[in-house]
C-alpha cells in the first residue's frame, strides 16, 4: 500500500469491510478519467439485463427472453464471463441469480430483498422525474 501511494498518483489500494483488497482510482481523479474513457465496462443493454436479473432473481431464462428479447443470450454470456451472474439447471430451464462478485463490485450490502427495495426506490425516483424506464438500473453510490 505504501509503494502504491508513492508510485501511483491516481491509484490507491483500499481494504474492504470483508478484509479483501481492491486497487481503485482515487475519487478526485474520476471526473478526469471519465472524460477520456472510451466506453463503459458494460453496454447499456447488458446493464439493463443485469439490473433486471438483480431485481427479479431468481429468474428463468425463458422469462428473460420474453422480457429482454433474443439479444439477452449475448448479455448472459458476457455477464457469466464477468462472474456477475450464475445459473442452476432445473430440467431444461436455467435459473439465474447474481453472484457475490456482483454485490462487491456494485457496493451492495445486505440480502436480495434489500437490493430489490433499493432498486425499486431508484425506479420510482426516475419515474417521478418524468422518465418512463420500467427496467431498474444499477448505480454505484459515491463514497
Per-chain topology:
Blueprint: H1 2-7, E1 11-15, E2 21-25, H2 30-36, H3 44-56, E3 59-60, H4 61-68, H5 72-81, E4 85-90, E5 93-98, H6 100-105, H7 112-128
Antiparallel strand pairs: 1-2, 3-5, 4-5
List keywords for this structure.
single chain; 143 residues; alpha+beta; Arc Repressor Mutant, subunit A; three-stranded antiparallel beta sheet
Task: Explain what this protein looks like in three dimensions.
There is one protein chain. By secondary structure, this protein is of the alpha+beta class. The chain has 2 domains: 2-36, no CATH class; 44-128, Winged helix-like DNA-binding domain superfamily/Winged helix DNA-binding domain (Arc Repressor Mutant, subunit A), CATH 1.10.10.10. 47% of the residues lie in helices and 17% in strands. It has 7 helices and 5 strands. The chain has helices at 2-7, 30-36, 44-56, 61-68, 72-81, 100-105, 112-128; strands at residues 11-15, 21-25, 59-60, 85-90, 93-98. The protein has a 3-stranded antiparallel beta sheet. The chain has a two-stranded antiparallel ribbon with strand order 1-2. Strand 4 and strand 5 (93-98) form a beta hairpin. Helix 3 packs across helix 7 (112-128). The chain is globular. The protein starts with a helix and ends in a 15-residue tail after the last helix.
Amino acid at each position: 500500500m505504501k509503494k502504491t501511494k508513492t508510485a501511483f498518483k491516481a491509484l490507491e489500494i483500499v481494504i474492504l469491510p470483508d478484509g479483501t483488497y481492491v486497487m481503485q482510482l482515487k475519487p478526485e481523479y474520476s471526473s478526469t478519467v471519465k472524460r477520456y474513457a472510451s466506453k463503459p465496462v458494460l453496454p447499456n443493454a447488458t446493464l439493463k439485463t443485469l439490473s433486471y436479473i438483480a431485481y427479479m432473481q431468481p429468474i428463468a431464462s425463458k422469462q428473460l427472453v420474453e422480457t429482454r428479447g433474443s439479444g439477452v443470450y449475448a448479455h448472459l454470456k458476457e455477464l457469466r464471463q464477468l462472474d456477475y451472474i450464475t445459473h442452476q439447471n432445473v430440467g431444461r430451464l436455467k435459473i439465474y441469480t447474481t453472484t457475490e462478485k456482483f454485490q462487491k463490485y456494485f457496493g451492495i450490502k445486505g440480502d436480495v430483498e434489500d437490493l430489490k427495495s433499493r432498486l425499486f426506490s431508484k425506479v420510482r425516483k426516475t419515474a417521478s422525474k418524468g422518465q418512463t424506464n420500467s427496467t431498474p438500473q444499477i448505480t454505484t453510490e459515491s463514497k
